[in-house]
Amino acid sequence: MSDTHAQTVRFVRESMLPPAEPPTKERGAVKWVRENLVSSWLNAILTILSIYFIWYVVSHVAPWFLNGIWDASSLSECREIRDATLGPDAEAACFAVIADRWQQLLFGFYPQDQYWRPVLALVAFFVALAPVLFPGLPKRMLWFTAASPFVMFFLIWGGSIWGPIFIALGFVIGWLVWRFLAPVAGPILALIAAIIVPILYWYFVAGLAATEAGGLIPIGLERVESRDLGGFLLSIIIGLSGIILSMPLGILLALGRQSDLFLINKVSVGFIETIRGVPLIVWLFTAQLILGYFLPPGTTFDITLRVIIMVTLFSSAYIAEVVRGGLAALPKGQYEAADALGLDYWKSMRLIILPQALKISIPGIVNTFIGLFKDTTLVVFIGLLDPIGFSNAIRASTDWNGIYWELFVFIGVLFFIFCYSMGRYSLYLEKKLAREHR
Amino acid sequence: MATTTSTDPHRSGFRLSQLIYDTRYRSITIQVIALILLVAAFWWLISNTVQNLALLGKDFDFGFLGARAGYDINQMLIEYDNSMSHGRAAIVGILNTLLVAFLGCITATVLGVIAGVLRLSKNWIVARLMAVYVEGFRNVPLLLWIVLIFAVMTEATPQPRDFRVLDDGTSGASMLLGDTIAITNRGVFIPAPVWGSGALALLIVFLASLVAIFGYRRWAAARQERTGQIAPTFTVSLALFFVPTILVFLVMAFVSDRQTLIAYGGAADQDFATFAETLGPDGRVSACVVPGTTEALLTRRLLRGGPAAFDLVPVSGPEDAIARAEAGECNLVSLPPGTDPATVPAGGFALTDSPRAGNPVEFDVPVLGGFNFEGGLQVRNSLIALWLALSLYTGAFIAEIVRGGILAISRGQSEASFALGLRPNRTMRLVILPQALRVIIPPLISQYLNLTKNSSLAIAVGYMDVRATLGGITINQTGRELEGMLLLGSFYLALSLLISGVLNVYNNRVKLRER
């Protein structure tokens, strides 16, 4: 203690004052408003403008929405109801169009009594996805994941149950061949055999066996043609199959792009850049107009299938770039450690590199999927009836000619729910990964 | 032979199994196999194509590009009519694609920067509004926005005839901004600039003032380096930008002369109203004017205000105009200022109230004609819907990029700059932005690329871009799917390779030099 102050002190407080409340301006809602809404002149003006904008939008949209008419058979009937109950100047949405046509917007021309099938397929998809996303679940569920593509195919397209079963059997045969041949003949021969045998099986045996089995034990669901698929069902089918099928191809392309082998590297780069450099719509027209030129004369197949193939190729290029980012983000030590353990290329990729790289890439893959899901609306231009295709058809019909807000709001909200929740999920993953890496 | 030690390489000759098991040869083996597979795949595709083409009786030939197109394009930036070639139509389409991409990139950047910065604002309500904008546009397909905006533009806007003022003085719709802009279901009509005789001088003055701004800024920076004094750059630049050009414009407008309107008919020293009267009640004024000039524009304004019905006969120049007037094709001739009235051949009299020749820049304001607006520039709803939707959609993505870029700069940077005594705007300009731009620009450019590719959604609203001309009507008319799609794909590919090339150059220049 210095002496200086001891000499000058004239008053020493002996008891503390009771703590006082902060001034009114500095607490509670007033403080929040002062800091967050009117901290400066510019902010105050922005606040007023924003409140005016919100009021303007709400004052128009709220009555329009709340007065919505749900029960009518055409736009003119909607207007008559509005004129009768609210007066001609009232704003009222005509949601009757959605009540009238929601089946088409969601399921296309899928048979009405079979709607449980696509819904069940979607549930199956989520069940199949669960063990991939949540490592806590029992590993045995992965068996269902492996079987789920066939289950979903069977549920949506129907037909005899034996077709999907015998096709799935091909993969089992391939795996068995690999399993029993690898110790005897070496990995390379076993791999070649594991590819060739199932192909021979599918080509010569599977179709025949499925027909025979179908004749003996006819189990199956009502067959639904591809052209009857439409609406959101179609968007989801194209989006999901595109992203699932493009994963293996995308991973291979990413590995190819990282590869030291000159030819493999250049081919991968060329493929990725070509696909990414041209808009999806041009690829879809390619699928529609000129894919037939590249196939043996007389080959024709379903436009939905062509679109799925094109979308798969398209998204594989984007997935490849995402996975490449994941591969590049791994520390070099991981590669070197895998080499030091004496693992060959494929083993080091399968056991060390890819599990880590894919984990980092999941947010990017989810974002790619969001983009792809939004892009599925483009199939309307090659004649498939996705939600926007149906909205065009509905707007062109005599009953609903002149309606647009209600339809687009409905479609937009559905897309928003899908994409926004996936976007949130990818954000959550990013945060979780950041925590785990710390 | 010398004794071999165990470390020497194995010398017994080459065995086939080394191709697979020896890493020195394995990569070559794999690549050779890959090459064979690749060549086989290409051979398969090409032979299929050749077979298919032969079956259809087609060949592979780009000659169709020179053939007559035979279809019209409703928006063209260069001269085009249906007698020109498919190649020309493709170029018109390419320019339309580039136009909407260019406009979209500018507005998307403006929107995105504003939304990105405001989303970081401390103002709670503004930040929430911007979050709603960004999430709303990012999570709904672009196509839906395009179709929605187009539907609103065509169904919720008035028809041109609604603008007509009825007898009771009311009208169903009115023009905006002092009767210069009309938003209709056929498009937005805006004033079109018409370049007059002094436009070139005006342009030169404007460019010179831009150079002056640049020079002044360099001088100010050099002076600051030398003496430490800061010269006011913003106000001076602003003044240099506007003042000289406006001054020159006013002077030229002040000295601009009257044009000479020669009437064929009537008597000497008459004005336009008397001339119109001499034509009688059924008389029609046919004016010979050079289209696209300010003289023509002002003559048309005079005629529109006059009592008689009129039409305009396009001519190539004064001599042509006089020749046509003598041939009886028109009874009113517009000659540029300074024409000696004595040179006018017999039968023509100069009007006493000839309009002015016009300012260096005149605006051709749209006016309601018979069924539609006349004059001005018609911006089609397809262009507006595409442009707006692309800008709003891409703007939402750019907002996120800008926000991420600013957040990526650590707080320490701005605190350090405050500690150095820099004011907030200088901190932003000299410390934060240069670092944030390094993060922002690469994804920004790839958004531009996305916008350009997304402009192919023009098909949803019938905007005539390159996909609609080369990849649409031309393919339908000539049946050249293979060639057309190949050209279309190469155009987009070349564009994106060009843009990513620019991006790579930029990245290399701004890359942090790490040691």
UniProtKB/TrEMBL annotation, chain A:
<feature type="transmembrane region" description="Helical">
    <location>
        <begin position="230"/>
        <end position="256"/>
    </location>
</feature>
<keyword id="KW-0812">Transmembrane</keyword>
<dbReference type="GO" id="GO:0005524">
    <property type="term" value="F:ATP binding"/>
</dbReference>
<feature type="transmembrane region" description="Helical">
    <location>
        <begin position="403"/>
        <end position="423"/>
    </location>
</feature>
<feature type="transmembrane region" description="Helical">
    <location>
        <begin position="277"/>
        <end position="295"/>
    </location>
</feature>
<dbReference type="Pfam" id="PF00528">
    <property type="entry name" value="BPD_transp_1"/>
</dbReference>
<comment type="similarity">
    <text>Belongs to the binding-protein-dependent transport system permease family. HisMQ subfamily.</text>
</comment>
<keyword id="KW-0472">Membrane</keyword>
<keyword id="KW-1133">Transmembrane helix</keyword>
<feature type="transmembrane region" description="Helical">
    <location>
        <begin position="37"/>
        <end position="58"/>
    </location>
</feature>
<keyword id="KW-1003">Cell membrane</keyword>
<dbReference type="GO" id="GO:0043190">
    <property type="term" value="C:ATP-binding cassette (ABC) transporter complex"/>
</dbReference>
<keyword id="KW-0547">Nucleotide-binding</keyword>
<feature type="domain" description="ABC transmembrane type-1">
    <location>
        <begin position="232"/>
        <end position="426"/>
    </location>
</feature>
<dbReference type="InterPro" id="IPR035906">
    <property type="entry name" value="MetI-like_sf"/>
</dbReference>
<keyword id="KW-0813">Transport</keyword>
<keyword id="KW-0067">ATP-binding</keyword>
<dbReference type="GO" id="GO:0006865">
    <property type="term" value="P:amino acid transport"/>
</dbReference>
<feature type="transmembrane region" description="Helical">
    <location>
        <begin position="188"/>
        <end position="210"/>
    </location>
</feature>
<feature type="transmembrane region" description="Helical">
    <location>
        <begin position="351"/>
        <end position="373"/>
    </location>
</feature>
<feature type="transmembrane region" description="Helical">
    <location>
        <begin position="307"/>
        <end position="330"/>
    </location>
</feature>
<dbReference type="InterPro" id="IPR043429">
    <property type="entry name" value="ArtM/GltK/GlnP/TcyL/YhdX-like"/>
</dbReference>
Automatic annotation (TrEMBL), chain B:
<feature type="transmembrane region" description="Helical">
    <location>
        <begin position="25"/>
        <end position="46"/>
    </location>
</feature>
<dbReference type="GO" id="GO:0022857">
    <property type="term" value="F:transmembrane transporter activity"/>
</dbReference>
<comment type="similarity">
    <text>Belongs to the binding-protein-dependent transport system permease family. HisMQ subfamily.</text>
</comment>
<dbReference type="InterPro" id="IPR000515">
    <property type="entry name" value="MetI-like"/>
</dbReference>
<keyword id="KW-0812">Transmembrane</keyword>
<feature type="domain" description="ABC transmembrane type-1">
    <location>
        <begin position="94"/>
        <end position="503"/>
    </location>
</feature>
<dbReference type="InterPro" id="IPR010065">
    <property type="entry name" value="AA_ABC_transptr_permease_3TM"/>
</dbReference>
<dbReference type="GO" id="GO:0006865">
    <property type="term" value="P:amino acid transport"/>
</dbReference>
<dbReference type="GO" id="GO:0043190">
    <property type="term" value="C:ATP-binding cassette (ABC) transporter complex"/>
</dbReference>
<protein>
    <submittedName>
        <fullName>Amine acid ABC transporter, permease protein, 3-TM region, His/Glu/Gln/Arg/opine family</fullName>
    </submittedName>
</protein>
<dbReference type="InterPro" id="IPR035906">
    <property type="entry name" value="MetI-like_sf"/>
</dbReference>
<keyword id="KW-0813">Transport</keyword>
<feature type="transmembrane region" description="Helical">
    <location>
        <begin position="130"/>
        <end position="153"/>
    </location>
</feature>
<dbReference type="Pfam" id="PF00528">
    <property type="entry name" value="BPD_transp_1"/>
</dbReference>
<keyword id="KW-1003">Cell membrane</keyword>
<feature type="transmembrane region" description="Helical">
    <location>
        <begin position="485"/>
        <end position="506"/>
    </location>
</feature>
<keyword id="KW-0029">Amino-acid transport</keyword>
<feature type="transmembrane region" description="Helical">
    <location>
        <begin position="89"/>
        <end position="118"/>
    </location>
</feature>
<keyword id="KW-0472">Membrane</keyword>
<dbReference type="InterPro" id="IPR043429">
    <property type="entry name" value="ArtM/GltK/GlnP/TcyL/YhdX-like"/>
</dbReference>
<keyword id="KW-1133">Transmembrane helix</keyword>
<feature type="transmembrane region" description="Helical">
    <location>
        <begin position="194"/>
        <end position="216"/>
    </location>
</feature>
